[in-house]
Amino acid sequence: MRSRLLQRNLRIDPPLALTGQGMLIHDSNGKAVIDGSGGAAVACLGHGHPRVLEAMRAQMDRLSYAHTALYSCEPAEQLADMVLEGEPGGLTHLYLCSSGSEGVEAALKLARQYFVEIGQPNRRNFIARRQSYHGNTLGALAAGGNMMRRAIYQPILSDAFHHVSACYAYRDRRDDESDAQYVARLAAELEAQFQSLGPDTVAAFIAEPVVGATLGCVAALPGYFQAVRAICDRHGALLILDEVMSGMGRTGTMHAWEQEGVPPDIQVVAKGLGGGYQPIGGIMIGAKIIDALRDGSGGFMHGHTYQAHPIASAAALAVQQVIREEGLLENVRAMGALLEQRLVERLGNHRHVGDIRGRGLFWCAEFVADRASKAVFDPALKLNERIKREAYERGLACYPMAGTIDGKRGDHVILSPPYIARPADIEAIVARFGDAVDAAIAGLP
Ligand code: PLP
Questions:
Q1: Do 312 and 350 fall within a single domain?
Q2: Domain co-membership, 345 together with 291
Q3: Which atom of ligand 1 is nearest to the CA of 268?
Q4: Where are the alpha helices (DSSP H) in 206-286?
Q5: What is the per-residue pLDDT across 104-123, written as a single tens digit (0 to 9) for each?
Q6: What domain range includes position 391?
Q7: Is residue 54 domain-resident?
Q8: What's the confidence (pLDDT) of residue 84?
């Protein structure tokens, strides 16, 4: 082991990513790899986009940093205007930070502050979903339900977070239930959670519109988010939607919630905001919260040294301009349809693929030992990791994960290519992915 960086795995030195161009990353072993997942659904414009690089250089020449206690800056102001321009949910303000987890922390704290400002300080509880991931900082981790990520930190997580089931029809809808009955059951579970906590103690319900890093691209059934919104409204709680992974165009609409028709009070964004060109995340906020702060204490009791950073904002501004000016949402929808079609053709009948699901350019295959019983593979086999390795051998980067299914680990692999993908890229991604799946399963002991 040579690396003195604390890597994710202390036993393996990963290759160095040396250069990136468009859909490709070139590594220190001389390998060119298609970035079939944009990292973790981050690199929405691929790598080395000239307009983004130029915008960053230009901003560096003008101003690298100014503290927000004294100043705002041009690119952050322009980014707020661009992101909020024509925003269909009535969200009026943008707070900028440096990651998805920071965005979730800001959302939770803002919800809490809002209720203090309007004279409801007893609202200290948050309801989230068991199958969810909201980030790795302590507040975000407490909100998330991913048991594998939470396990060793459980004793130091806040007790203000409570969990209900996510909407995961593939595994959790009973055979004798219709979609509507399943949604009604989930709504009843959420209502019961409000009642057991005391409805006037709940600040917010937080959920991912399309679950990312815990289940892999699971969208809710029609009617679910309407039911959730109605329950929050009935009890005066806020709805926070975490679109860190699924937002900013990834699912084919700018915001994933648009496909549900249910706008949130606070929306968290990150990955697709800056496309990985700079670390940046943020929250979009509705007018009633801003008004309460403006009429109350006068400001958000929160902040970070690097919030609304000029170069990060300039990079994100350029990313957002490119998405809008180059019609990339249309490309996400068209290439997403092709990706779905090819995945279903290649793996739809595979005896170890239980489910293929997703939206836009956000697709996942869930692997099962047995299709009929949906039994998971032995976690010790780490099938998702094996698929990642076989795919990399074949020149494809994908995003594997072990979800939590009934307390056990399940195997999922996400494909979330950049929005600039062309049909030939999609064909190559699915061809390499299909071969990797076959090779990984053939190689199981
Ligand atoms: N929320 C969701 C839905 C995510 O998928 C992630 C990261 O994968 C986060 C929050 C945390 O973001 P970050 O890793 O940038 O802190």
A1: no
A2: no
A3: 1
A4: 224-235, 271-274
A5: 999 999 999 999 999 999 99
A6: 17-48+327-443
A7: no
A8: 98
Given 325, 359, 375, the domain boundary residue is: 325
293 and 354: one domain?
no
Task: Please report the ipTM that was assigned to this predicted complex.
Answer: 0.99
181 assigned to some structural domain = yes
Q: Domain boundary at 274, 304, 325, which? A: 325
Which residues surround ligand 1 with Cβ inside 6 Å?
A: 40, 99-101, 104, 133-135, 208, 212-213, 242, 244-245, 270, 281
What is the DSSP annotation of 95-155?
EEESSHHHHHHHHHHHHHHHHHHTT-TT--EEEEESS----SSHHHHHH---HHHHGGGGG
Torsion, Cα 291 297 302 306, to 10 degrees, reads 80
**Cα distance between residue 245 and residue 210, in whole Å:** 8
- The structure tokens 């060109």 sit at 277
54-85: pLDDT as tens digits? 999 999 999 999 999 999 999 999 999 999 99
Cα-to-centroid distance, 134 and ligand 1 (Å): 5
The reply to whether 240 and 388 lie within a common domain is: no
Determine how β-strand 408-415 pairs with β-strand 362-367.
Answer: antiparallel
- pLDDT for 338 equals 98
Are residues 290 and 421 both part of a single domain? no
Q: How far is the CA of 345 from the centre of ligand 1 (A)?
A: 31
- How far apart, in whole angstroms, are the C-alpha atoms of residue 96 and residue 74? 13
Total domains present in the chain: 2
Structure token pair of residue 445: 């002991």
228 and 295 housed in the same domain: yes
pTM of the model: 0.98
* 240/361 same-domain check: no
- At 372-430, the pLDDT tens digits run 999 999 999 999 999 999 999 999 999 999 876 666 678 999 999 999 999 999 999 99
Residue 133 CA to ligand 1 center (angstroms) comes to 7
